[in-house]
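DM from R.C. (forwarded with permission)

"hey, sorry to bug you on a friday — could you get me a structure for this? deadline for the figure draft is monday and I only need the backbone to look sensible"
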Amino acid sequence: MSNDLYARHRKVLPDWLALYYDNPLEITHGEGRHVWDAQGNRYLDFFGGILTTMTAHALPEVTKAVSEQAERIIHSSTLYLNRPMVELAERIARLSDIPDARVFFTTSGTEANDTALLLATTYRRSNTVLAMRNSYHGRSFSAVGITGNRGWSPTSLSPLQTLYVHGGVRTRGPYASLSDAEFIAACVEDLEDLLGHTRPPAALIAEPIQGVGGFTSPPDGLYAAFREVLNAHGILWIADEVQTGWGRTGEHFWGWQAHGRSGPPDIVTFAKGVGNGMSIGGVIARAEIMNCLDAHSISTFGGTQITMAAGLANLAYLLEHDLPGNARRVGGLLIERLRAVTAQDPGVREVRGRGLMIGVELTRPGTDRADPGRVAAVLEAARADGLLIGKGGGHDTSALRIAPPLSLTVAEAEEGAAILEGALRSTE
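My reply, with the result:
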């Protein structure tokens, strides 16, 4: 059945629509931290639909909220008052730490970042944008135009002038050998030099931890130091929290809070896990920025009642059960376990991450060259033993991406680490 579905997929869908595995997987249902395929095989899910099933598969509280909302009304558009949308916006505005925050809902992280770019360029009257090397911000024309990862940038055409800044990757590049303090100072000096050679940019957009880039990040405080420079020039800071938001990193509710010394961002974008699989994205910004547009707009599907009901139920569950704290505790154990089991593997360059957002970078032994072939082999071996993980990385796909639902138990973390250890050993 899967082979037949794959043939049908290839016939009607784009060739560039990426699929994992030599024999692609059809997932039919899930529960908790597990999913099942069409052949009845059970897998421990360490990728959560690309960090989107954030809480748990088939979470009863979310399922109930969606079902009850569907019985009333599913959709009406933003042309009408929408109680669930207002309630979720109120809650997110309070959690954002942005003063006088306004929230606009979209259907994806791509659309959220696209909206943030529209706001920033309109507010600043500039189409120049600063972005980080190795970054990824979505699939739309403008989001691709600022993406700093060649593997996910299919065109150099763009409505924006994009300038790329150092700092998103701590252990590679010209400043890798410096101490954290020296690294930050060098990146800030580079930013100041860059600003001396260009027209005033609208904004810097940055992921606190780069997702598609392989879960890489700068030292804590880099973006706070950047913010001081940006403020001096009137440049906005957009934090792309599509993958890091809602407590994924364990230590903070938002990824930007590791860089919060200079205050919150001007704009925050979010998506992925807030709906626990339902299609929700959005933008948070100060009122003067959000309200800078001088034409009418709506969102047909952004903020629709059924997704807002899911978001309210999921966010309530996450906070009431302190899942960010669970991500910190269980994620910390998982990171240390993975570091222990990979310590003697010459092809493992680094185990990095925070909370339940963990990257394992693979390189050819004795070099810093990416080893995408082994990454693919590890994914296959892990699947064969019942574990689903992701992959990513800059220059070439060189990192395993591990991001289970935030309700992961210690026993499940141990089970996943053991399977991954076996997959790594079988591919050495």
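R.C.: lifesaver. The CA atoms of residues 79 and 298 lie 7 Å apart.
me: no worries. The chain has a mean pLDDT of 95.
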